[in-house]
Prior knowledge:
This protein is 29% helix and 24% strand. It has 556 residues and is of the alpha/beta class. It has two domains: 1-343, 3-Layer(bba) Sandwich (FAD/NAD(P)-binding domain); 423-548, Glutaredoxin. Strands 1, 2, 5, 6, 7, 8, 14 and 15 form an eight-stranded mixed beta sheet that branches. The chain has an eight-stranded mixed beta sheet with strand order 4-3-10-11-12-9-13-16. A four-stranded mixed beta sheet has the order 20-19-21-22, with helices on one face. A hairpin with a 2-residue loop joins β14 and β15. The longest helix has 29 residues, at 352-380. The N and C termini lie far apart (51 Å).
Amino acid sequence: MISDTPVLIVGAGPVGxxxxxxxxxxxxxxxxxxxxxSDAVPDIKCNHISAxxxxxxRTLGVANDLRAAGLPDDYPHxxxxxxxxxxxxIARIRIPGRLTRFTDHSGPDGHWPTPEPPHRxxxxxxxxxxxxxxxxxxxxxxxxxxxxxSFSATDQxxxxxxxxxxxxxxxxxxxxxxxxxxxxxxxxxxxKGMGAKLVGDEVVQRVQSTCIRAPxxxxxxxxxxxxxxxxxxxxxxxxxxxxxxxxxxxxxxYLRDHELDFDSVDRDWAIRAILGVGADFKYDILxxxxxxxxxxxxxxxxxxxxxxxxxxxxxxxxxxxxxxxAGLADAANLAWHLAAQWQGWAAPNALSAxxxxxxxxxEQVSHFAMDHAHAMSRRRRAIPVELEDDTxxxxxxxxxxxxxxxxxxxxxxxxxxxxxxxYYDQSPVIVYDAEKAPAYSMGDFTPSTVPGCRAPxxxxxxxxxxxxxxxxxxxxxxxxxxPDAASDYLLEAAGQxxxxxxxxxxxxxxxxxxxxxxxxxxxxxxxxxxWRGDQITPEIARSVMLLISGSGSVEI
Length: 556
């Protein structure tokens, strides 16, 4: 077994594997430690890859494989609200499926300012694809069926003790890593070892989840199928996700406020009430899980050389699909900061940027999710009793309640704000100016080049996106004119400070977004803007480079 590594990652789920792939792209080796076996059946929890995550996977060369997997080509990715799965539809959020994802711009989910719009795909497909890419990387090693039992950190390294779960009587094996990252879920051993605490709301929602095989279900639907089908009726509220678009379905039964005990609700009865089928309908249970939706955020994301990412760092009701996807954003951010340390151009204190950037966003997104969960809970408590009636009153109730559900939920399924609106406004390695970043909501945002924001997307030429050409360190966009003395000052300063800098002339791009009002815009690999300006001196150029590498400060 390998004895040391630059980065040891605990947990080989989507977040851990993505972190390893990001590090490998930067030329950094890592070891993944996973308690499960290599052939374990993946979890079925996550059902959505956000646009921002798909951008990340595009840079890693994974996006096309992910987009080719999952539901059949012609299966709708819509969200449908119904009196039951086989009952009347009262609202539908149109979302393009695989065949029309890049051509259908008619609905609320049709316009995304990115080359990689979101993709509805279950975790059972995501993990094998990521694992295949991990296995092709010489810089990544995976140790299965091992558990971290303890670790200790010094100023120079982290010493991690591993237990072989298949041979627990064997002596504990110790690995040495320069950095340790806990991507090991809500019960994180790494978080507990750090002494970090989850803080927030312990109970937001209780859910019975059941994965079933029911090949006859789709034939019973009187409405066209959808990726997600919400049931709302006076007896039960729940949600069913299409996993393969044929016979595998994931059902969430949302328990009511007074249903504090999972066992108090008959699972079979609830499933049939959600589906709208009788006692003669046959299905097989493939797996089930009872879980509590929470809003919990770790009070620390870093302690020296030890870090947390994904569910180890935050847990919340997965509204808008931002459970796993928030973890993937953690991975991209942390990988970049660790690379800066490993490559030697960033000061040690620059690592604090990970927590200072990600923690506020984590808090904000967790509140978005919790607030939406509460809003949906209120709607479930107010389902009209006549919703299923074949009367004028029933029809009116369906129209009104359906419209209400549509307007409440379209923001979470077409969530451009969550994808592209968040910004880092407390980072020690971003050069801020006087302009404040625009506010955003779950659904909406205003593109901006304010430092800390995501660089507004544009195409350099057909098929070539901005994110396709960003350097692994920083990229200087020359917006108003070709590279000149100003860009030369920054290049020289970057060379003196050892900062990796690429210069890109975009002055002749035809459809440059109007937000690019400054002559120069400095963007880092994860697409966040770190500085902008119109004029620059050699002194300011050096100050900028010192600040973004964590070695100085500057006022602009």
